[in-house]
Fold this sequence. Notes:
The protein contains eight helices and eight strands, in the order αβαβαβαβααβββαβα.
Amino acid sequence: DAELSVIAKTAKKVRDAGLLLYGGGVIQLRNEKEVNRAFEYAKAAGMIRIIGVPAPNMLPLVNDRVQQYDIEVCIHNHGPGDDTYPTPDVAYERIKKYDQRIGLCHDVGHTMRVGKDPIALSEQCADRLLDVHIKDVTEATGKGKCTACGRGVIDVPKLLQTFIKIDYKGFVSFEYEAHGKDPLPGLAESVGYVRGALDALQ
């Protein structure tokens, strides 16, 4: 339809500008219409994955669509207040019987805010880890707020070392939610910190 045509043209402009448009999200997949729409959107945009939050009763349909479109679905955990997927291990238990292309987008900050160890859970769920949202948080409780990587309570160098240990092949995307009106300085600091930590691990 016309909307999908606009999506395809816009995605081409993004790629022509030299950017990799590999996925979209976080997309709610609460019913059949939303599931079908998400896959059509991802196909039109040429994306390889959907970062999403499928309702548990939609997982059989999501499984069918993953096989039909060959587009991955990565379940994003949202920490405290998320009764369905607070941490990646909870999502893992719901998806382990389905196609391997249904995996996890591990938001390490939200995992830490639940009080769980994002490093241990990344290793525990390694075979379904397809995407990572990396950030740091001020404390390991629901009150924890996003902060620049290296300024919070997550051991980012050890987390990166774990990704190397498990031979992680997916994407690591920065999700910097602090200073919404001017996020660039904090994001730049986070990128610099992570690059420095990776250089130190070589």
